[in-house]
Amino acid sequence: MKPVLEGRDVSRSFGGLMALHRVSFQLFEGEIVGLIGPNGSGKTTLFNAITGVFPPQEGEILLDGKPISRLKPFQICRMGIGRTFQIVRPFLKMTCLENVLVGIVGKDEKGTSREERVEQALLELEFVGLGGQSHRLAGSLTLLQKKMLELARALATRPRVLLLDEVLAGLNPSEILQALHMIEAIRVKRKVTIFWVEHVMGAIMTACQRIIVLDQGRKIAEGPPDEVRSNPRVIEAYLGGADA
Amino acid sequence: MSEFLMFLTNGLVMGGINAISALGVSLVVGIMRVINFAHGEMYIFGGYLSYQLAVGAGIPPVLSMLCSVAAVFLGGLAIEKWLIRPTYGDEMYSLIITFILSIILQNAALLIFGPYPVKPPSLVFGATNIFGLFHYGNQRLLSLALAAGIIGAIMYLVRRTWFGKSVRAISQDREMAAMLGVDHLKVNMISFGLGCALAASAGAIIAPIFPVTPSGSGAVSLTAFVVVVLGGMGSLKGCIAGGVILGVLENLGAAYISTDYRHIFGFIILIGVLVLRPWGLFGKRI
What we know:
CATH superfamily of the domain at 1-80 and 161-171 and 193-244 in chain A: P-loop containing nucleotide triphosphate hydrolases
Number of helices of chain B: 11
Strand content of chain A: 15-25%
Strand order of the largest sheet of chain A: 6-7-8-3-9-10
CATH class of chain B: Mainly Alpha
Order of helices and strands of chain A: EEEHEEHEHHHEHEHEEHH
Oligomer: heterodimer
Largest sheet of chain B: 2 strands, antiparallel
CATH architecture of chain B: Orthogonal Bundle
Number of domains of chain B: 1
Low-confidence stretches of chain B: none
Distance between the termini of chain B: 42 Å
Largest sheet of chain A: 6 strands, mixed
Number of helices of chain A: 9
Shape of chain B: globular
């Protein structure tokens, strides 16, 4: 089976700091893969490399076998990679509907008519449970609703792969449960492959089929959650070595 | 009383011109975080090209106006693509580039058009009696109508069109907009072209009333910046309100206090706003 998203020896440094060092990974169709690691281990840098914000200096990133690491962020989005941010970033001065429409227009500038676009946007809002909120300003939503709006907006670009950066941060336990259901729905109903950075360990260990662990810019472990949890290198990265 | 109303109307005409010129600055600042110091030169070129096409080439005045604005729009696209785009990521570079551009264009205008003020032919002649109170030049009334039409068109463009949605998305969060597939390079280029075209249209509209000269460009840029700060950064409504307020105050001040201090009145208001309400009339409090 060919991977949907693949990274080959991706490296990126900022000044003298090696933020990513020869990281390779593969995501297969319909998979949900977790990306964990201590603070500063390069998780967000890897997402920035994939989405073209800070392209890799060495190595290659491929989507469906096509290299994307020389493309601009908006082109990478149009190729089929969506992303949400750790700190929610809806366009606060726009309504929910307009927020989602930006994603739809971004993906497909010409083509469909106004009615079709609005209809699709309303469907996306409905899907994430914001059906009745379409004309509310994004700035007036609760945190959970803002996160859902970000998901709807990312889905509006019809991604093949969705990168989630700490969607659960700041949510209470019952909200976490709702968010988890939504992520599962996106994977199963929308057939989107998910690459997910998270600090809420319990959640990511139950939800993901496979976990990739980064530490100081290097991949130190990869495998099913149970295996990763008991891996001595992972424990050392999180808790510090015996000599630390 | 009728005299006062006439000065007020004069102020409104200048206010409309101020507003479209300032909208051009605001659009470029809001979307690209670039301050175009060559804004005033675009205004001058708008006026001069319109004059040259109408008088030199004998094209009908309406058409020469449209052609001059279109030419400056294309020039703006080219400037963005070849001079501003390479500076993305460091706003200081674009600041220096547009400053140099302003000097070059001003001297180019001196070389090409000469130092003398020029006045393109009027589109309409005669005067209209306004509610039996005073007679007012038709060309001035037309200028006010044109300015209002352009303001309306820009508001429609930003509020109602797909291009406007992309513009607003980028001005709120450039990186996020790119993540959603919005082609910011294209939006930037068109916005810069539009900013230049707005300055040129202000110049072309007002030139038949107040002649343009190459040395007047600095004052035009300054007025536009004052209006943007007065109205509040990033607010289109602020540009319109700020432009009208400045136009009316300058004209009333010139009429009742002294014409020598015409431009001082605007700055007094600006200082007052900066002291009491530094985020401008319609801007967001930081």
